[in-house]
């Protein structure tokens, strides 16, 4: 089955399910996000093991779970305390393993923190975004903007892309694809803001022009998510973090851009539009 066909079929299944989960919000949305983050953390751990690192996977998963639950129930109130506690536990874990003969305890310690903080702390902004006033519509604006920008970058990058964006990190990414993502993301966010205002009466305090600006800023930074994951995958010799989603790779692959889009969108919306 051609890769593009498989990718399209999976997309047609995933996107409606995602929109439905966002619509219901609440415990269902929070549980799905936390589960996806834990699966992404497990894939991240597998990649790190392929470069001879030994993260504390149980503590990393525990950290992702606890940070996600804390964001669900308390927003940011306990995040600092939990991060301190998590660092303490991870440090103790790797000191014990060093005493038992672990060859690279410092690197392993950094790897464990990377999983817990990068995926747990950044990823849980997906929960914070949905919890904003009018959060369903804000999430409907931010996440599809990412998907549209990614599609635009892929389309232009594969058809006219010639100038490499980061050849050592991700040889297939081009500047043409990057600017395609900016254009598609801006226009997509503008169109969504217009649709929400004119058709659904969503009541979001954002004009179509402001929607385009939001889309432009998000689209400008989300390639960092994909490049960060590529920086991790390349030394491991892997194209994808997993193969559970045909044509799309793994959960880490599907969430990488959202790790940047969710906090950027959250703070832009919080300080500019609410």
Task: Give the SSE map.
Layout: H1 3-24, H2 26-49, H3 57-74, H4 79-99, H5 105-123, H6 125-131, H7 135-160, E1 164-166, E2 170-174, H8 175-198, H9 208-221, H10 223-236, H11 251-255, H12 258-272
Antiparallel strand pairs: 1-2
Question: Can you tell me about this structure?
Answer:
The chain is mainly alpha-helical and 274 residues long. The protein folds into 2 domains: 1-131, no CATH class; 134-222 and 257-274, no CATH class. It is globular and about 65 Å long. Helices cover 76% and strands 3% of the residues. The mean pLDDT is 91. Strands 1-2 form a two-stranded antiparallel ribbon.
Q: What structural class should be given to the helix and strand makeup?
A: mainly alpha
Spatial strand arrangement across the major sheet: 1-2
**Structure summary, number of beta strands:** 2
**How many strands, which pairing sense, and closed or not: the largest β-sheet?**
2 strands, antiparallel
Rg measurement, Å: 19 Å
Helix content: over 70%
What are the main properties of this structure?
274 residues; mainly alpha; 2 domains; two-stranded antiparallel ribbon; 12 helices
The gist of it:
With 274 residues, the chain is an all-alpha fold.
């Amino acid at each position: 089955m051609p890769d593009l066909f498989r990718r399209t079929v999976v997309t047609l299944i995933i996107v409606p399910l995602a929109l439905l989960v966002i619509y219901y919000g609440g415990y269902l949305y929070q549980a799905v996000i936390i589960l996806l983050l834990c699966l992404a953390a497990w894939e991240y751990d597998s990649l790190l093991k392929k470069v001879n690192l030994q993260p504390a996977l149980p503590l990393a998963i525990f950290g992702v779970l606890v940070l996600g639950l804390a964001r669900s129930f308390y927003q940011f109130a306990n995040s600092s305390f939990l991060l301190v506690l998590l660092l303490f536990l991870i440090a103790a874990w790797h000191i014990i393993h060093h005493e038992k003969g672990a060859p690279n305890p410092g690197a392993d310690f950094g790897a464990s923190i990377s999983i817990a903080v990068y995926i747990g702390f950044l990823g849980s902004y997906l929960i914070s975004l949905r919890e904003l006033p009018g959060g369903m519509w804000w999430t409907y604006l931010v996440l599809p903007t990412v998907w549209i920008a990614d599609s635009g970058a892929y389309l232009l990058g594969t058809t006219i892309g010639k100038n490499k964006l980061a050849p050592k990190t991700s040889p297939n990414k081009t500047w043409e694809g990057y600017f395609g993502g900016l254009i598609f993301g801006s226009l997509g966010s503008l169109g969504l803001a217009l649709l929400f205002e004119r058709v659904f009466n969503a009541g979001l305090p954002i004009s179509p022009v402001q929607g385009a600006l939001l889309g432009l800023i998000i689209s400008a930074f989300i390639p960092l998510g994909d490049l960060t994951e590529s920086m991790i995958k390349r030394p491991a010799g892997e194209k994808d973090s997993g193969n559970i989603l045909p044509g799309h790779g793994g959960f880490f692959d599907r969430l990488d851009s959202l790790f940047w889009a969710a906090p950027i969108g959250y703070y832009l919306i919080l300080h500019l539009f609410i």
